[in-house]
Amino acid sequence: MAKLWVMFFTSLLLVSMMNFYAVIREPDMIDIDDIHEYPRETVKIKGVLSSYVVDPYGEQADRIDLQIREIDGHSVVEVRWFVDRDADIPPIGTIVTVEGEVSEWNGRIWLSSNGYGAIRCPNSDGTCDSIEYETVPLVEVAMNPSAYANMSVRIDGYLSESIAPDVTYHSLSLMDNPSYGNADHLLYMQVEGRGLEWIEAGSHVDVSGWLQYDQRSLRWRMLVQATGIEVLNQGEAVTLSWELEPYTLTYEVGKLVAIDGVANEFSDGWWISGDSPTDRLCMLPSPEDLEAGIENLTQTWTGRLIWSTDEATICLDRGHDASVANPAGNFGDDVTTMLDIAEDPFAFLGQNHTFEGWVTDPIPPDYDKGYVGDGPDYYSRTTKLRLHLIGEHVEYIEAGQPIRFNATVLWSESEGRVILEARSWTLGEAPDPSLLNWGDGYNSWKWDIGKLVTIYGEAVMDEDGNQWIQRSGSNERMCLLGDGTEASQQESIGEPIDWTGRLSTTEDAVENTMQFCIDIR
């Protein structure tokens, strides 16, 4: 019996000693990049204070949020410091050590630190080292933006969205953390001009631009040329989780992403599936995927998350190539660029030159004027000029159709603009008709008025003899202009089909409404 009591007290002593050690032991010093490996553990990190905000939600809370960046790297961690709001905060650029518990919620991760001793200077004598910023820290602009108003400024930060090449305009935010949810400061940016390659979301950049107050939007904004962005470190692919709500995917459209799953081809295309029956993500495989054979293959799939018009859903694009979508500027040496004309039109007046471009809007056979641009669509072009065709063309020239032409550069005093008067031209292949999706409505369809479009539905005829294309199983419909036999042909087919024609609008005088029509004549 005595031995049992000895064993009991020995065990009690050992447990007490272990608990005492757990309380007094020094937390492990870890790298910021490894913080996700220590959930709910108390750890230490060492880094540079790059940003902070006191009482971030204006609740009079005793909380200060800080951003700590690697000393010789680009990773950043958010620290939520629960301390008196009047606590002394080291200057921006100070090297500090931070002790806190690794917390995580809904994909976000941060350090939760309590008390004055949680943030210290690492030197044994209590002093702090610091680094010298070559740019203006974003937090300094946030604290006193008027000090930088209407002047050129160079700011250090992270991009909230990806910047695509061959696209002339982007609107996004410059942040003090690569993750939007963990950022304390966001500066709205408008970027104009084409870059040479993708700049991914979360990239660490130095941005040079013009800071001004936008009275219309009641916010500060930075006007930036694409050449004013210097990439210090490219952002990494965003890891997607099947556990998050599906609507959160909309926040990642345009970004490089990675997701675990199995690929399978179904009747409605390729899909990546997770563990649950409801875990599905549309996938657009690359030619290399199809050649290698990916049916029933389980792996981590990477690609760019896009909105697919054809699939009418968000998809993982494995073969995305922006230069294919926007082949602007790939012209021969014998071609004069339209940008040259736009920059100095009077230097070219009366001269004949060869041009290449894309027709911006459909030109019907009975009309000889239109516009030509140096890109196939609104987002890829930088220049658009008036085009006057001297001669007949028996068919429609479609929007987005390539054209090579020889033209005389003229100046119209009555219109106050340059006109390219073309007497000979060669047309490339017309683009495929645009796909209309039921439910998109006027705000989406209005951009395709006058263009060739395709929509899936059934042809029906009402009691007045008017023909309509109707969405199966609903009351949605649009008028159909044909030879009058389409409804009877539909009955013989027995199922909905794709209808291709030119989108137009007409007014209903009785109902006093406007309606869309497809003209297939």
Please describe the structure with a list of short key phrases separated by commas or semicolons.
521 residues; mainly beta; OB fold (Dihydrolipoamide Acetyltransferase, E2P); five-stranded mixed barrel; 7 helices
What does this structure look like?
The chain folds into five domains: 28-120, Nucleic acid-binding proteins (OB fold (Dihydrolipoamide Acetyltransferase, E2P), Beta Barrel), CATH 2.40.50; 136-233, OB fold (Dihydrolipoamide Acetyltransferase, E2P), CATH 2.40.50; 238-323, OB fold (Dihydrolipoamide Acetyltransferase, E2P) (Beta Barrel), CATH 2.40.50; 338-427, Nucleic acid-binding proteins (OB fold (Dihydrolipoamide Acetyltransferase, E2P), Beta Barrel); 434-519, OB fold (Dihydrolipoamide Acetyltransferase, E2P), CATH 2.40.50. Residues 321-333 have low confidence and may be disordered. The chain contains seven helices and 31 strands. The relative contact order is 0.06. The longest helix has 23 residues, at 2-24. It has a five-stranded mixed β-barrel. A five-stranded mixed barrel has the order 9-10-11-13-12. The chain has a five-stranded mixed beta barrel with strand order 16-17-18-20-19. Helices cover 11% and strands 42% of the residues. It has 521 residues and is mainly β.
